[in-house]
Amino acid sequence: MRPVPLVSVCIPCHNAGKYLGAALESVYRQNWPAIEVIVVNDSSTDDSQGVLNHYRDDRLTVIDAQLGSAAKARNLAARASTGEYLKFFDADDLLSPTMVAEQVKLIAGEPDVVASSRWGRFQQNDLATFLESAEPVWRNMPGPDWLIESWRHAKSMTQPGIFLIPKAHWDKAGPWNEELTLIDDFEFFSRIIGSAREVRFCTDATLYYRSNLTGSLSSQRRPDNIESAIKAICWGTDYLLTLREDYVAKLACANLLQSFVYSYYPENSAFLSDLAKRINDLGGSDLPLPGPKRFQQLAKFLGWKMARRIQRAMGR
Asked: Tell me, what's the pLDDT at 225?
C-alpha cells in the first residue's frame, strides 16, 4: 500500500497565545492520520510558550526564533517540514475537522495542483457569528484564470489557511518574500496559484477566519506597511502579466490596483502615484467607486478624490 502522505501545518506565532490553543485544537481534531505541526514562536512575550508546552507531543515541533516577520517564520517552518503537502495556517484561525483529509484526496498525486476551500469570517471568539464569504472562484480553474477571476472585481482573498500546497510546488514557485510585511500573502499566492496547473475547489473544507482583532497587521496604515503593500500588489500583478497579457488579464490587474488606490487615498497619495500610472498603462480600470450613497452622490459632483478628502476629514 502507498504510504499516507504527511501534511505539514506551518504556523507563525507572535503573541497569539490568546487564540493559539483553539487553532492547535482545530489541527489536532483533523481526521487525516498523518499531520505534523511546525510552530515558529517569533519573539512572543505573552503566554504563547505556555500554550505550546501544553500541546507539545510527537506531532508538534516548536522553533523559537527572533525574526520579526510572518514571512520569515513561514519560510523557516516550511524548510523544517518533512511533509508532502504544506498548509500555511495563522495562529488565530480555525480549520473544519475534515479539511486536510478532503483537500489531500482532491489533489493526491498531482504535484502541480493546489487545493482551495470555503472560508468565512467570525468575530472574536464567537463562532455563532460565522458568515461564509462565497466567491466566484469557488470552482476548479487553471491557476492564471483563478487570479483573473478573483481580481476582476477586486475582492481577492488569499488567506493562507484556505490552501493546501504540494511541497514540490512550493519548491518550484519559491518561498514567501521576506522583504514584505503587509499583504505578503497576495504576492506569494500570485506565484503559487499562477504557476499551478489547476486550483481545485474543495466543497467539504472550510477556513474560519477570525476578524476584528485589535492591532492586527492588516489594520496597520504606517508608511512602511503601505510601501510593503504597494510592492506586493505590483509584484503580484506583474507576475500574472508574465503569464497572460490579454485584455481581461490587464483589466483584472488594473481593477485590483484601483481598489488599493480607492482604499488608501488621500493619506498615502505620495505612494499611490506609481499605481495610477500603472493603471493607465494597463488601459484603465472599470471598477466602480465603493462607498455609501451619500459619498457616491458627493463624488458625482466633486470627483471621487475630493469626496474622499471630505470623508476622511469628517473621520469616516
From this structure: 85
